[in-house]
Amino acid sequence: MIIRVSEARVRPGRFQEFHDMIVSAVSEFPSRYPGLVDHEVLIAPPDALLYVSRWRGEEDLVGYAGEQWRDQPVVLPGEDAYLLAPLQVRHFTVAPLSGS
After folding, report:
1. Domain that includes residue 36, residue range
2. Does a structural domain hold residue 99?
3. What pLDDT, in 10s, does the model give residues 38-91?
């Protein structure tokens, strides 16, 4: 499993509008991307929003984000108008806990 975290820093006064746009856009992702195991939107008002998605594997992420999935965020149409800086994207895998 690969966990993808995209972080947005939102312009002052645009947070709720941006949040609503993201929630609406990602609500259709499970039906569009079968490799998407789970996803959520995390907020830290007034200016930070994370989109966290969990994927079965690399092939599924390529289907969502393209061949450059490791380095390139997925930017929705019009999203740049809300952002203070470009989206940041990071990826994680689950490390086993010792003794588990």
Report:
1. 2-92
2. no
3. 999 999 999 999 999 999 999 999 999 999 999 999 999 999 999 999 999 999
CATH number at residue 46: 3.30.70.100
- Alpha carbon distances (Å) from 92 to 16, 31, 70, 99: 28, 23, 11, 21
> Alpha helices, DSSP H only, in the chain?
15-26, 29-32, 58-65
Question: For 7-38, what is each residue's pLDDT tens digit?
Answer: 999 999 999 999 999 999 999 999 999 999 99
Residue 97 in domain? no
pTM reported for the whole predicted model: 0.91
Residue 100 lies in a domain: no
